[in-house]
Amino acid sequence: MKHVLSPLDFSTDELDRLMDLACDIEKNPQKYAKKCEGKQLATLFYEPSTRTRLSFESAMLSLGGSVLGFSSADSSSAAKGESVSDTIRVISCYADICAIRHPKEGAPLVASLRSGIPVINAGDGGHQHPTQTMTDLLSIRSLKGSICHMTVGLCGDLKFGRTVHSLIHALVRYPDIHFVLISPKELQIPDYIREDVLKARGIPFEEVTDLEDAMPKLDILYMTRVQKERFFNEEEYIRMKDCYILDVEKMKLAKQDMLVLHPLPRVNEISVEVDEDPRAAYFKQARYGKYIRMALILTLLELA
User: Fold this and answer.
1) Chain centroid to CA 152: how far?
2) Which of 44, 153, 289, 292 has the fewest CB atoms within 10 Å of its CB?
3) How many CB atoms lie within 10 A of CB 118?
């Protein structure tokens, strides 16, 4: 039984096969419409979510399966003090596979140690978000043709952004990736990623504070919101939240084939006028999220 707690739980060859399957699902949805008939997905979401929870549910329903679960800790027995370990042992009696989102780093790992079914980490605190990373990789491969030989700009909240942390972990395994890390000093990437992931592997990167200066060199711009829920101090959040706003004028500085990605939700870090730019790929990215989660469910249930 395989769990997915980190994007590194799959080799690059396994990820390629997963993405190949996702592409086939996109092209031939009817071929997969009954693959999960009789199977149940549990979605255990201790934190709010729109895209991740609904794309998991849509993925399972599109495969012919069914869904059960909860969308907030308040509507589960966690409100009564039940542990993640006990919850997953109970859910293992009802479902065939589980996606869990939790505000505490490591909660999905704890669940996997007690689970009788495959566990998918759907985001744990500021730590990892592997299925978003798989979505990002599929988006890049589908829209750029490959995942290599490119300069990737990561902009915004690089300190608390679990999507950023997961994506860096995944991209360093591909050839000729250069990172431009764009953030205020207070929201720079954590030391362990700088030292243990980038420097330790000899990955070229630069840390800058100016988005305009970075724009002309980027092949991918990955925007993120400043996450209010990760701040302990509201004044700090208010001071940081409008650090970077991507607008039409800044897009004029970019390459004609640059892609703008964003894990969503956005607040105001991308102006709505940018949505009309053909390089704005974040809504396509959301669609790819459904296909990669369909492929992941099939793979973990050994139904592919």
Assistant:
1) 16
2) 153
3) 21
